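Two quick folds needed for the group meeting slides. Do the first one here.
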Amino acid sequence: MAGTSDSNGEGGTVRRAMIGSQVRDIILERIVGGDYASGERLVETRIARELGVSQGSVREALRALEGLGYVESAPYRGTRVRQAMTREEALALRPVRAVLEQLAVETAVPVLAQQPGPLRATMADMRKAARAGDVKRYAHASTDFHRVLVHASGNAALVTAWESLGVDSRMLATTMTSVADLKSAAERHAPILEAVLAGDVKRAAHLLGEHQEYYLATAVS
């Protein structure tokens, strides 16, 4: 990611956002993988130098991770890796996400039944990533599957609430630590896709609820 100087205009904004999400993912992977220990101080300048990005990009990434509960900052102590999220904290997020997604399908299913391309594409990407054993790509494809459903609802308030849960980062952490069989995990989305393609709102909502209940039962964050 070296040579990533800021540029003006919409293209520069998009590029900065992409760099920020990449930096966030790298730091998160290091936290989840144990490269950064609980309580370890994360020095912006050092990380920026290692990754070849601006200190601002690292600061934004750390701010995002703090909002998700993976790091914490305090005056005179800087930013440090937070102790692991408790099981209760992790499980509390699942019902909220489930409700939002079940609400989304009420208006999203009729849209996606007529324009299924984006949802089909994310399913195909999940399967491809699973076959390749690519954990990071799988996590992003899985998130995108649910993101397509939520955004297709056309409900801006619902979309904002769902995005605020940090599903991208949480899914990456979950996949790294708790998903042993990517192929099986990918296929759990297939019945949801079939229900959407059939225009069956009730079944799609039910399956999304079951999808989240499965992870609740296995204590996946």
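Then this one, please, same format:
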Amino acid sequence: MIKKKYPTKEDKKDWLNFTKNLTNIEDKDIDLNKDVPAGNIKKLDLHGYMLSEANDKVKKFINQSYEKNYKKLLIITGKGLRSKAFKDPYRSNEMSILKNSIPDFIKNDKNISRKIIKISAAKPEEGGDGAFYIFLKNKFR
């Protein structure tokens, strides 16, 4: 017979601390697209930018969009098919391509990520694999 293991005091304390701040947990039942009017989508195209330039552009773009209370952003990175990283054996093919590194940059920057509800793949007609959406929090809440 297997004995039941009960949560420790430390586990309970951790759980209570975790449940006090649920802002980073997205509600799967909310359809973020239905609440966004067509004119309230702002786009940024990063084709041709180097990684450091693209990161700066994205940071500025998200901050400005948040201040103007935009809800949905479309960031177009491209698919990276013509990236010169494939020819350089000393560079990572995955991390030098904007479509992979820009979302990581956003998630790792606490000042930006606290303004974001969710990052998701773009619809095929809006860029598909070469783009993604960012859903921003309401500035006034």
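Slide caption for protein two: The radius of gyration is 19 Å.
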